[in-house]
Specification:
Helix content: 25-40%
CATH superfamily of the largest domain: P-loop containing nucleotide triphosphate hydrolases
Catalytic activity: ATP + H2O = ADP + phosphate + H(+)
Membrane topology: Single-pass membrane protein
Subcellular location: Mitochondrion inner membrane
CATH class of the largest domain: Alpha Beta
Keywords: ATP-binding, Hydrolase, Membrane, Mitochondrion, Mitochondrion inner membrane, Nucleotide-binding, Transmembrane, Transmembrane helix
Shape: globular
Main location: mitochondrion
CATH architecture of the largest domain: 3-Layer(aba) Sandwich
């Protein structure tokens, strides 16, 4: 928050030491503070962002002289640690508190209507990106299940609910398990939940963690947030990070090196331990619920299990209507085309993501999308066979090793 505010101030444009970075987060027109455009064939391409760097910088603000310092040091395993500080010539600490509160308000304006995403680097949280909030209506899920989940989370986040938990000595936490094939909307719905309730989302990819990093990261979670534990079936199993475990018909999970493995006991401790943050909404996702330990998903740790299925008739219809959103001037045949599309696509055979890819490839022509269904199904079938063979070879190689 402090660095974002400093970069918006006039003095930041004239400091003697600056860090120049390609700005992937600014608007297309480069109107953000400290941004400049490369004037080539495309003036809006590869925008640059400048910020004060590696030194001490003086500036005046509200008739007071402040000092801003920023530096970066290298820690273990080559990871960097950035430090920033602010001070001023005076004795009243409220001056600095007021300045930091101004930084906070400035930052909240920048991320208004956005969801802040945090990912981990080793055992430290790192802001990843701020993305526009995803409206719940854009996630294709059974309407009854969607309403049930939204109502449950809304009730949990109600201030009165916190008091209810407190008076009874019950840990103020809520856990959900989203399971089902890949491409069925588990991540998308988790992201939309964060946007719906104006929460930041902290993403933990289990196959990339070890026991120490998991405990450290959980200890640094804020009080109110969405915690997304991806690929929870990797806990306690031996898997190769990056292997494609989601294809083929194998009944045994892929493998991971022992050094990169979270023990089940460690995860249970961080979920139930004294230091586990209250007020957090925990969402665990898996493509293989059959691999999960009963102790991990028992009531109290997981309060609600939700299956994300392949697209049924209603979901296929929702996807078609979403892409070809009817307008008053549109052809009145669109509802009939939707029925034709639903009739041609087999039920519970394809994920919403797969169907969406077909519709987006024909976003200008619903008729062409319908005509392309047979060719598309044949292509998907061939891709699945190829991935299944690849997965079989990988598992054979692991067994041989």
């Amino acid at each position: 928050m402090l660095i974002f505010w400093v970069c918006s101030q006039p003095f930041a444009r004239s400091v003697r030491a600056s860090l120049a970075m390609v700005d992937l987060k600014s608007s297309a027109h480069g109107n953000g503070p400290g941004s400049q455009a490369w004037h080539g064939d495309d003036a809006n391409k590869k925008l640059l962002h400048y910020s004060p760097w590696n030194g001490r910088f003086y500036f005046w603000h509200r008739h007071r002289l402040f000092i801003f310092e920023r530096s970066r040091s290298y820690g273990e395993l080559g990871f960097t640690r950035e430090e920033a500080s602010i001070s001023y010539f005076g004795r009243n600490p409220n001056v600095l508190k007021e300045l930091l509160d101004e930084c906070r308000r400035h930052y909240l304006c920048l991320v208004k209507n956005k969801t802040c995403v945090f990912e981990h680097q080793a055992d430290r949280w790192k802001p990843s990106k701020s993305r526009s909030k995803r409206d719940m209506s854009t996630v294709m899920l059974n309407k009854k299940i969607k309403k049930m989940l939204v109502d449950d989370i809304s009730e949990f986040l109600n201030p009165e609910t916190r008091k209810w938990y407190s008076t009874r000595g019950i840990p103020y936490q809520r856990g959900y398990l989203f399971y089902g094939p890949p491409g069925t909307g588990k991540y998308s719905f988790s992201f939309s939940i964060a946007g719906q309730f104006n929460l930041d989302i902290y993403i933990l990819n289990i196959p990339t963690l070890d026991n120490h990093s998991l405990k450290t990261l959980f200890a640094e979670l804020p009080r109110h947030c969405v915690v997304l534990l991806e690929d929870i079936d990797a806990v306690g199993s031996k898997r190769i990070v990056g292997s494609n475990k989601d294809v083929g018909q194998s009944t045994s999970p892929p493998q991971t090196p022992a050094a990169k493995m979270v023990a089940l006991s460690t995860l249970l401790n961080v979920l139930d331990g004294i230091g586990s943050p209250e007020g957090r909404v925990l969402i665990m996702t898996t493509n293989h619920i059959e691999y999960l330990a009963t102790a991990l998903i028992r009531p109290g740790r997981v309060d609600m299990k939700v299956e994300f299925q392949l697209a049924d008739e209603d979901m296929i219809s929702q996807l078609f209507s979403f892409v070809y959103d009817p307008k008053p001037t549109d052809d009145c045949e669109l509802p009939q085309l939707a029925q034709e599309f639903v009739a041609k696509v087999p039920k519970l055979k394809f994920s919403p993501a797969e169907i969406m890819s077909l519709l987006l490839a024909n976003k200008r022509s619903p008729g062409h999308a319908i005509a392309s269904v047979d060719t598309w199904m044949e292509k998907i079938g061939e891709e699945r066979k190829k991935l299944a063979r690849t997965n079989s070879w990988m598992l054979d190689g692991v067994d041989g090793f």
